[in-house]
Amino acid sequence: MQFPTQCLGEDLYKRKKEEAMKAFIVALISAFWQLFGSHGVRVALIQPVPRLRSKSLGIFKSPESIQALAGQLEAFGYNVRMYHSSTGWGMMIRLLLFNPNVVGVSTMTPNFLEGKRIAQLLKLWRPRLPIVLGGWHASGAIQAHLHGQESESLGEILNPNSPFDYVVAGEGEEIFPRLIASLLAGKEVEAEPGVSIFRNGEIQVGGSTPRITNLREIAEPSWSGLKIKRYRDKRSGALDLSVHFNRSCRFQCAFCSTPTVYGHGVRVTPALQAFAYLKSVVVTHRPQVITFTDEDFFAHMSWVEELVSLLETDNLAKQFGVSFDTFASINDIHRLRKAGKGYFLDRMRAVGFGSFTIGVESFNPNILLAYNKEMMILPTMSREERGTYTGLDNDQKKRALVTHYRKRTQEAINFASEHGLLVVGDYILGNLGESVEDVRAGFEIFKNLENLLLAYIPVFTPFPGTKIWGDAYSSGLLPRNPDGNIDWMRFNASAGALNLGYDIGALRNELEIEFYTSSRYRRDMLKNLESTPALRGLFVGRFSYLGRLFPGDVRVREMIQLLG
Ligand code: B12
């Protein structure tokens, strides 16, 4: 029987509720399983893998959101099972067999509807099963409501017919175990900081959870039950596992959702504790790559220095052949370069760091201003440059901003490359108010950055609760389903959500090909192959992936032939 692909219409859903009895029988069956199944208080954590309607950007990583929760709940003695797959009968039957007491659903915006659908079906099976929604979409919807941007997103989550009983906004490790304990004690849960509900015909918002002050006390993320070998980078094929120690970010980019979950102020897991966990992941699962997905890895330089010293003492890269990737801002690299700290990058390289992902985001001055990037770029100017800049008129300022930003970006790439670190440049296309010509003009600068060998080119996707969401929501450009609801499935970075009046998905693909087949890229690839033959694997991996993604493209084929 075909697994339902659409959300149920309200009246069908109501009718189905009556069919709950059928679900009750199923519950009886599961009770039978319970006798032979797993015991203790069972918590199911579901993070649906989004069904993309367009080309994947090649990243499939471990579900850190539910792993963090699972680690904490296991430390509390709960029997936890993680479900990280696309929703289907397989997941449903496994859930049935596990027969959870409480279900936690974690979604980002693009896979919210998947999460909603699985929750609806679970409620058909057991109408009184407590289902809690948390994560990036839920936190964003709460913030959008609290900031007066819109309440439609939250209304879709909390309403009389919603399958979600509770919504948790913000970090979950402290609030979720408390919520579960209240539910198991049969207490009526009220809205409180971190927990929002629908009660007495209205949405009752508890706002965000208070920040976790001491990450030292939080349990390590759990990997139990996950099929680790699946988490391979689709481009390189490497087993690439994620770790996350720094929460929140110093910067306030208007497109970024980080503040919706973490507010401001970077908190970090102590380096010794972080290193111990890092080592356990490497020794236990033997990944080729570990990605630090910290929003702001260099927020506390002393922490990075301590971690590098620990890795120098116990060199996991040498022992286990693992390399480390992380995010870094142009500001951080500029600061290291200005301080003459190239030797520190050499130390990072020596303990296995291989690449920095830097958020370039855009070279369109209007977008840089809309993204609040000026606050990041100005500190990379000298006092004199800032003095000159403030004296300019708006148009002159825009030109000066892009010229300076391009210079600092190029310097950051050169500095990292000189110390053997690859740079992955993130560049966002199709922003609010950007025409095809604007997109091409900005991308032309990005495409010609010397020695930039890797790029992540998502399409702008506005997320609830971000600074830019208000404009996106009121722009009238959001995609909607025939039933008038926002079509969250379209919120994916490879096709973009906004109806921009042109096919930004196709333009994205076109520009990605241009990036990897430009004369600048060809020159840099050959130069790097000569100086660092070991990079051949990376180019072969990247171009065979592009060859699979764009089979008919002669330019990609020519690059593959060039690699021989
Ligand atoms: C690592 C990462 C990924 C990883 C997956 C990480 C994961 N958690 O599964 C990968 C690389 C796969 C990924 C992919 C994508 N990502 Co991403 N990613 C991040 C990043 C860098 C870190 C997130 C993270 O793991 N933090 C560590 C964990 C421990 O924290 P957490 O997820 O916040 O979970 C905590 C709380 O949110 C809460 N919580 C979470 N779930 C639940 C559930 C319950 C029941 C409860 C009670 C609490 C709770 O408790 C957790 C512990 O405190 C963020 C942040 C950023 N600034 O860029 C972007 C980010 C989350 N990604 C984003 C997006 C959009 C995507 C993509 C959809 C892009 C695309 N291609 O379209 C893809 C595809 C998604 C997918 N495959 O699932 C957006 C999400 C915005 C939104 N509103 O949805 C972010 C915020 C980027 C941004 N700046 O806007 N991503």
Quick tags:
7-stranded mixed sheet, single chain, alpha/beta, 6-stranded parallel sheet, binds cobalamin, Rossmann fold, 564 residues, 24 helices, 15 strands
Give the topology, please.
Blueprint: H1 10-18, H2 20-36, E1 42-46, H3 64-75, E2 79-83, H4 89-98, E3 102-106, H5 112-125, E4 131-134, H6 136-146, H7 152-157, E5 166-168, H8 175-184, E6 195-199, E7 202-204, E8 240-243, E9 246-247, H9 258-262, E10 267-268, H10 271-285, E11 289-292, H11 301-313, H12 316-320, E12 323-327, H13 330-338, H14 342-350, E13 353-361, H15 365-370, H16 374-377, H17 383-390, H18 394-418, E14 422-427, H19 436-447, E15 454-456, H20 469-474, H21 504-517, H22 519-531, H23 536-549, H24 554-563
Helix pairs in contact: 10-11, 13-18, 19-21, 23-24
The protein binds cobalamin (B12).
Task: Provide a descriptive summary of the structure in words.
By secondary structure, this protein is α/β, with parallel strands linked by helices. Among the domains are: 202 residues, Cobalamin-binding domain (Rossmann fold, 3-Layer(aba) Sandwich); 47 residues, no CATH class. 46% of the residues lie in helices and 12% in strands. It contains 24 helices and 15 strands. The strands form three sheets. The chain has a seven-stranded mixed sheet with strand order 2-1-3-4-5-6-7, sandwiched between helices. Strand 6 and strand 7 form a beta hairpin. Helix 19 packs parallel to helix 21 and helix 23 packs antiparallel against helix 24. The two termini are 48 Å apart. The relative contact order is 0.09. The mean pLDDT is 92. The structure holds cobalamin.
